[in-house]
Amino acid sequence: MEKSKFLFLLRVVLGGTFIITVINAVLLTSLADENNFLFISRSITSIIGACIILAAIELSVFAASWSKWNKRIFHWVREGYHLIQRGRLLSLIGYVVLLAMSPYVMKGLFWQRYINITPPHHLLDFFDGYFSHIVFRANILWIVLIFGGVILDATIPWRKKEMQRSSLFASHWLIIGLVHEAVLFISEITNFPFSIRWSEGSRQYYAWLFYKRDFWEAKVELPLIDLSQHLLLGIPNFIVGLPIWGHRLWHVVLWIVISTLSMVLLARRFKNTTGIKKFIFVSWAFLFIYQGPVLYNLLVIVGLMFWGYDNENFRKSTLIVIIASIWAGISRVTWIPMPGTLAAFLYFLETPVIKNNKVSLWKYLQIPFFWFFSGITVGFFALSSYFFLAGFEGSFFSYLPDQQLLWYRLLPNPTYRPGIILGILIVSLPVIILILKGMQTWKSRWHTVRLLGLGSLLLVFFAGGLLASTKIGSSANIHHLDGFMILLLTIASYLYFGGFKTEEGRKWRVIPSRPLAILILVIPVIYIMNSNWGVRSVSLEQGEEDLNQIRVLVQEVADQGEDVLFIAERHLLSFGLIQDVPALLEYEKVMLMEMAMAENDAYLTSFHSDIEELSYGMIVSDILSGVRLKREGRDSLAEENNVWFTLVAQPILCYYEPILTLANAGVELLIPREEPVC
Known about the structure:
Layout: H1 3-34, H2 42-64, H3 70-86, H4 88-106, H5 110-114, H6 124-131, H7 134-155, H8 165-186, H9 200-212, H10 227-233, H11 244-267, H12 275-290, H13 296-308, H14 314-329, H15 338-350, E1 354-355, E2 358-359, H16 361-390, H17 420-438, H18 442-445, H19 448-469, H20 482-497, E3 500-501, E4 507-508, H21 514-529, H22 540-559, E5 564-566, H23 571-574, H24 589-597, H25 601-612, E6 618-622, H26 638-655, E7 656-662, E8 667-672
Parallel strand pairs: 5-6
Antiparallel strand pairs: 1-2, 3-4, 6-8, 7-8
């Protein structure tokens, strides 16, 4: 590298590092002052002092780079660079270790879990505050970005024509995000017997049910949504005796493989996505859709459409729409329009209105209209067929008669801090800017009908996603805007890679400015890194002890001929972790919560009646005794909590009393009271 470029990069690195170091010193000082041990704790004072000294050194080197000393600095750094090159294998090992460790360090888990250091009690609040702060995460990210980038630049033969330095650093940045996501996935692969997420045990139970039970019996409770997810998730049930970690591994494999494959199939639609460019696109697209996230069973629809849609073969495309619509019908009602919409979207992008200097709008529009409406028809037929075969009475909508719509969640709120509108804008605005840039000269390249078609479909999915996101129980993210995100990704990809065909019949592409390209790359990685892990910290040893206690108590009740109702942790029965106990099929946690949020009177009346009649000798549930009312609009998931408290926890606790509460497992065992307490 020539000296002028080197000095520029060195000053950027030193300037950025100096700013981060100063901010760290200020944050540490502020936290120490809040915890009332500033200048009292030697360890904290030493850390703050080290930050100040380091900042002084960085500032001195920065100043020296503008003086006659810059030649010597250039010489020292170049020697270090050559040293990394000579120890290429060792350097690459260091790069891998740096990447692998960074997610744990960034989340503040390394000192707690892996090196088994517990600070003095009076320092716990200080460290928790520091490790959870965005400044600490930015500090680690900066270190990994700079040191990892230097290692890659020194060891990878980037000088080949197909790999420029900008591509190398873009790949490095995306790899950081991918590793962070991979570590998050890996944290789920554990043999802990109890649920590591709120609905995980329910998913595993329903996945087992479809493969192991006669689920067409009228008494069997089946899930209202995501039949397709449970069908995929249940495949490992064919392997007899597979431990629970194997099922969790399969869940991770489904996420990674289906997400990656669907994005690879999108990339295959463009001939100029090869080599490093294809890697960058697929990696970025994977991280982009995970910001929702877009569930893997829904990505099957996306992958099918990207793989099978053929603009020159109407019959093949129609068949793919039908197959994908059937899958959508047994997935989620909000995704039933997606196959036809995506087919129409690809049609508008690849097919000009003007053909042979002739314009026939009716002939042009009848194909996308046919796909759209036929896809919806097939999807609802598949959904109705599932409801009929499963024994559900009425349509899907009859089970959700009175769902609350929490409009305040569109704005910043305790459940999802940015709010749905700001959250989706952060995720999608750079991509939208790229699309708008591609439409600046629309009169010469776009026919108005194509713009209206694409825009109306985007608007429908955006409005529908916002509406679905206000529904009680819609979770603390933007996953209901998943269809909108897929459509945005599709049109942006076509514009960037030249898949869009102009009215003149030529392929045309849009090149983003460098600031816009950087923004598009940066946001998905930052978003992923700032997300919560979602997997609670548990003890495997304590988990086994808790499971043994549950086995003994449950078996005593079952031996007396009484029924045991597993509201939660029903997968313990399906995986054989608790044996010789009949599995009651009613009142599973997820279904019970859905019916409670919908205030389904018939279902809840039956549930309350069975509780009042003490129909069960024991109930296994999430911990109910600690559930309390939350302040609606002011506490996270307050409305969901209060519905559960009012319609489920209170009635149970009125007639049943806890005999065992296991905090590590998140499980409570309850038996009938001698007298009600309500």
